[in-house]
């Protein structure tokens, strides 16, 4: 049976939870729809995080990002939602999500969301 898009992020235990290290995902083919025109928006996402107790499972991330393909979403909203969903799933020590949206109407948009667990607890 072929894979289907899903908003469920699967996780697995961090194999080196005693140290800080970065994991970076590069998503060069992200698409969603403009909520005003219904036209496709294209973006490249970079997701970098320092895991705490859990890591994001790669296939579930692919299916998660695919789930936006037919959704209307402003650039700012979708980037923040992706960050929120990752934070909810794994509570990373640090997270940066960069949505680099391709030029439309002569303007490109880059939205960067950051999270630092140590600053949240202070």
TrEMBL record:
<dbReference type="InterPro" id="IPR043133">
    <property type="entry name" value="GTP-CH-I_C/QueF"/>
</dbReference>
<dbReference type="InterPro" id="IPR050084">
    <property type="entry name" value="NADPH_dep_7-cyano-7-deazaG_red"/>
</dbReference>
<protein>
    <recommendedName>
        <fullName>NADPH-dependent 7-cyano-7-deazaguanine reductase</fullName>
        <ecNumber>1.7.1.13</ecNumber>
    </recommendedName>
</protein>
<dbReference type="InterPro" id="IPR029500">
    <property type="entry name" value="QueF"/>
</dbReference>
<dbReference type="GO" id="GO:0005737">
    <property type="term" value="C:cytoplasm"/>
</dbReference>
<comment type="function">
    <text>Catalyzes the NADPH-dependent reduction of 7-cyano-7-deazaguanine (preQ0) to 7-aminomethyl-7-deazaguanine (preQ1).</text>
</comment>
<dbReference type="GO" id="GO:0008616">
    <property type="term" value="P:tRNA queuosine(34) biosynthetic process"/>
</dbReference>
<keyword id="KW-0560">Oxidoreductase</keyword>
<comment type="pathway">
    <text>tRNA modification; tRNA-queuosine biosynthesis.</text>
</comment>
<keyword id="KW-0521">NADP</keyword>
<feature type="active site" description="Thioimide intermediate">
    <location>
        <position position="34"/>
    </location>
</feature>
<feature type="active site" description="Proton donor">
    <location>
        <position position="41"/>
    </location>
</feature>
<dbReference type="InterPro" id="IPR016856">
    <property type="entry name" value="QueF_type1"/>
</dbReference>
<keyword id="KW-0963">Cytoplasm</keyword>
<feature type="binding site">
    <location>
        <begin position="75"/>
        <end position="76"/>
    </location>
    <ligand>
        <name>substrate</name>
    </ligand>
</feature>
<comment type="similarity">
    <text>Belongs to the GTP cyclohydrolase I family. QueF type 1 subfamily.</text>
</comment>
<keyword id="KW-0671">Queuosine biosynthesis</keyword>
<feature type="binding site">
    <location>
        <begin position="56"/>
        <end position="58"/>
    </location>
    <ligand>
        <name>substrate</name>
    </ligand>
</feature>
<dbReference type="GO" id="GO:0033739">
    <property type="term" value="F:preQ1 synthase activity"/>
</dbReference>
<dbReference type="Pfam" id="PF14489">
    <property type="entry name" value="QueF"/>
</dbReference>
């Amino acid at each position: 049976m072929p894979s289907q898009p899903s908003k469920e992020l699967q996780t697995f235990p961090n194999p080196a939870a005693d140290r800080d290290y970065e994991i970076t995902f590069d998503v060069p083919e992200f698409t969603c729809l403009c909520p005003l025109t219904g036209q496709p928006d294209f973006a490249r996402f970079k997701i970098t995080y320092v895991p705490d107790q859990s890591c994001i499972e790669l296939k579930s991330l692919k299916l998660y990002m695919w789930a936006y393909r037919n959704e209307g979403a402003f650039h700012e909203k979708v980037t923040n939602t992706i960050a929120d969903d990752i934070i909810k799933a794994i509570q990373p020590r640090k997270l940066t999500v960069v949505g680099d949206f391709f030029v439309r109407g002569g303007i490109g948009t880059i939205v960067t969301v950051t999270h630092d667990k140590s600053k949240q607890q202070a």
